[in-house]
Amino acid sequence: MPRLRPLLAGSALVLLACLGTGATAAAKPPAALPAPAKQPAMSAGAFLDSVGVNLAPGDAVAAWAAAQRLEAAGIRHVRGPAPTGPDDPTLEGLRALAGTDLRLDLVLGDDADPEATAATAASLGPAVAALEAPAGKRALPLRRAVTAHPALAGVAVLGSGPGVDYQAVRLDLDGQCPGCAGDELGSGDAAVQVTEVDLGAGVPGAVAARYLPRLLLTNAGAAVRTYVPGGGTDTGPGLLDPAGAPTPAYHAVANLLALLDDGPKSVQPGHLAFALAGNVDGVQQRLLQKADGHFWLALWVERAGWDPASGQTLAVPDQQVTVTLGTPVGGAREFVPESGTTAERHFADPPGGRRGLDAIELEVTDKVLLLELIPLGADGAASRATRPPASPAPAAPTTQSPVVRGAGQAATPTTGPAADDARAAAAGQPTAAADPASRSPLAFTGSTALSMLVASLLLMLVGVAALFASRRRYHHRH
Questions:
Q1: In 155-307, at which residue ranges do the beta strands (DSSP E only) sit?
Q2: 376 — phi, psi (to 5°)?
Q3: pLDDT of the residue at 34
Q4: Strand partners, 131
Q5: H-helix or E-strand containing 256?
Q6: Which of 96, 148, 262, 334 has the fewest CB atoms within 10 Å around its CB?
Q7: 386: phi > 0 → left, psi -120 to 50 → alpha, else beta; which?
Q8: Is 33 in contact with 278 (CB distance < 8 Å)?
Q9: What Cα–Cα distance (Å) separates residue 36 from each residue in 61, 207, 284, 313, 362?
Q10: 366-401: per-residue pLDDT in tens?
Q11: CA distances (Å), 171 to each of 144, 181, 192, 261, in order?
Q12: What percent of the chain has pLDDT over 70?
């Protein structure tokens, strides 16, 4: 027994040292986070209404097929050429678009007669939302023609100079990222509409899938509407390729709109107190709110993913960002629209914690990240999260005749376009992951693991030394 006393004493000392080291690590205060500040949110429904697409409708069949694809993506507004008269070949395609729920912004040609164009546009019915004067031309003649036609009451006039409801702005990115170009929207008083976006020739489709959602979120609130490219042209890729098939940008925008779709509901958005900490260099944000009260925070790194000079794609490193909340929430979900509409991560307190989340750690990239914040219920538990929608499936071609206003069809089709099986299936939910901010102080972290390793080595050394000393005393006695 006397031989074990040094070993036991050393073990006790090492154990105390280990506990002391662990206690020190656990008691170490976290890095100071910025104080959350109240920031206004935008209505999710208003954001969806700010999205439009430029489209040359073609004939009735092509226009009907494009309209089905755009409606499946959640697009509500289309901009295209205005018909010059009843014999204009584009009129049939516009009538097919008017037979859907899309709203039309019609652009006059340079030599178009405003009065004849206004009269022909009136034949398309309530689908016409705006008429746009030619670039560089006075808008007053068009304003007089619209005002004089009773069927065009409420139709907005776009263009430049006096007589317009909204100034028309064209954005030429020339291959640059949306935040790399100069600000052309002025003070952001929503008195403009971005009628054309030129991404730049040669921009890859995968890069457009990141640039266009970021551009739409950036412009929302500063412009009433932003019309992105529809079919691919020399101005860069759009939502549809020259054959009318969906592009990567189509899926990214469609998923973004599906996640933020509020249906016919409307809400007066409120404020959310939050702040961003960590590596926030180049991180942009857009706060939105749905009618159910859930806030959706869009985050992304605004950096170039394409070098137009060399024609090479550029890698944008991930950045660690912490979202701190002034009022704790019951839970949160992370979505990346470019990848789909299924939540990629879940954040929640440990079961029974019921204190709510007040800090969420994220990896922000140049892809748009949507963070849904689920509020606490009256009982202190998280309110029920809504099921995320399935990724919108682009409408399949249909042999059904298009609905053309004024061409004899009296009713809209009763058979909808074919849909992908995945659209009807419920989106799967991955296993919930505990939020790092809600981790218990006794959690097994890297600092405690290092302390335990050092303590184990010290314990082994003390044990060996005690055993060696005990053997020397034994041999000395005998």
A1: 156-159, 166-172, 192-198, 226-229, 271-278, 283-289, 295-301, 306-307
A2: -75, 145
A3: 80
A4: 106, 157
A5: helix 248-260
A6: 148
A7: beta
A8: no
A9: 53, 33, 16, 36, 17
A10: 999 999 999 987 655 555 566 667 777 665 555 455
A11: 28, 9, 12, 26
A12: 69
Find tokens 């998923």 and name the residue: 255
Strands, sheet with 369-374, edge to edge from the N-terminal-most edge strand? 42-43, 283-289, 295-301, 369-374, 331-335, 345-347
CB 316 within 8 A of CB 329: no
Contact predicate 337/213, CB 8 Å? yes
Cα dihedral angle (441, 447, 452, 457), rounded to 10 degrees? -170
* DSSP code for 272: E
Q: Tell me the two tokens of residue 92.
A: 């049939």
Q: Which amino acid is at 466?
A: A
**Is 291 in contact with 182 (CB distance < 8 Å)?**
no
Q: Which two tokens stand for residue 469?
A: 């000393």
User: Are 388 and 337 within 8 A, CB to CB?
Assistant: no
Q: Is 158 helix (H, G, I), strand (E, B) or coil?
A: strand
pTM for this predicted structure: 0.77
Q: Tell me the C-alpha distance between 71 and 246, whole Å.
A: 13
Task: Give the tokens for residue 377.
Answer: 């219920």
Beta pairing class for 271-278 and 345-347: unpaired
